[in-house]
Amino acid sequence: MSEIREAAMSSKAWPFEEARRVLKRYEKAPPEKGYVLFETGYGPSGLPHIGTFGEVLRTTMIRRAFEVISDIPTKMICFSDDLDGMRKVPGNVPNRDMLHEHLQKPLTSVPDPFGTHESFGHHNNAMLRRFLDTFGFEYDFISATDFYRTGQFDEVLLRSAERYDDLMAVMLKSLREERRQTYSIFLPLHPETGRVLYVPMKEVNAKDGTITFDDEEGREWTLPVTGGNVKLQWKPDFGARWAALGVDFEMYGKDHSTNTPIYDRICQILGWKAPEHFTYELFLDDTGQKISKSSGNGISIDEWLSYASTESLSYFMYQKPKTAKRLYFDVIPKAVDEYHQQLRAYRDQDAKARLNNPVYHIHNGDVPESRMVVPFSMLLNLASVAGAEDKETLWGFIQRYAPEASADTHPDLDAAAGFAVRYYNDFVKPGKTYRAPTDLEREALEDLRDRLKAWDGTADAEELQGVVFACGRERFDPMRDWFKALYEVLLGASQGPRFGGFIALYGVEETVQLIDDALAGKLA
């Protein structure tokens, strides 16, 4: 066993913990299908959101961890439930009035309100695949519409008719009395209107593989359960899909967790061992509400990538998947800087520590070197005091601070400079609020200005930090009040960088001028 595999077998990193659970399924014999199958599910009722990306990313991390500890081949499927009926019109799409007449039709039978694809379902599927392809995920895409209509689901659908009473018994236990009277695991698609019907069954004929029901107008119909004439209700569909495909692992959000026993039992009745599960906490928007595809709250993948790298988003998704987290624009700077901190730490870590480092899982073990000689948070503050409208303005300061750096040799820093300017102008600048210093703060600022005027050393961040500290040591208790004053008076923000590092980057003379401007009331 290699050193990495041996370390992975005891690693406490959550992807390895989950991978070991999957491996245990086949400790006696390898899978008959020849591979271990990881699945992610997607409901294309609205535009794909960042939570969908997180689910695929995290599943991929577990898949790659499995490949470290096992030689069994793997596959990953991204399954789109696009045969579901459109229950409501999403609030964040054009031509909403047109969509109302297509309610309850399968999403792949609803016209595309954007006018670019065959249907609304096809449009949203294309959006999902574009997002996933941006990140280089390896997956097979399956459309529920194709899965049902091409016969790939037929065997399990016929088995569902045969074991209808057992499946209904599982479902009826979970339903209120009123719902039980009309519930069926089968949802027929009306032969004339194409709408998904929620109607009780008059007969389920296991021998013929058919169902008989009355539509909403009281007309009786008999349809085969095969060939896309019928779909399963969403809870039975979940477990039946596992059985049809032979799924070994699927993760889903906490909102599904109470249904896990139902999914598992459906899968078992239909002849497959229930897969391993991983339940993650949900993402929240800036107000603490769950992000939603249909409402479009929170932050989208494209929005994150307007202000930071793909790797920073992957880092955010890796962190504490079982903890609910706010997913809004203000989390981006911290994610960027922590990601690069982990990159720098990785270089000096042993094999065990590396496997616990998030960047190992983000880069599948092929971890690059960080070239961010200036933290993202520092670039934001620099953009603020410099009034930067483009990244070239920042590079003027960066190259004085780090002469060896350039856009060619430090591409991640170059990209971050551009992101910082955009983030500053969109989020920081509108909320900047300067204040005048108190008498004590003015005294300390004058002291700092005078010491910097007399400074004849190099622009060393640590030495300059010592100067800043000396000016506040005898005046402020606790010292954080001094640094808070620096940020609020000089930067117009409630928090900021290590100030010695900021002076080294911005320049000693420039910082003297900044202090003079603040003392003269030109900032507040």
From TrEMBL:
* Residue ranges annotated as motif 'KMSKS' region: 290-294
- Where is ATP bound in this sequence? 293
The keyword Zinc appears for this protein: no
Record's catalysed reaction(s):
tRNA(Lys) + L-lysine + ATP = L-lysyl-tRNA(Lys) + AMP + diphosphate
A Gene Ontology annotation in the biological process aspect, one of them, is:
lysyl-tRNA aminoacylation
Q: What class of enzyme is it?
A: ligase
Family assignment? Belongs to the class-I aminoacyl-tRNA synthetase family.
| Family annotation (NCBIfam families) | lysS_arch (TIGR00467), PRK00750.1-2 (NF001968)
Entry protein name: Lysine--tRNA ligase
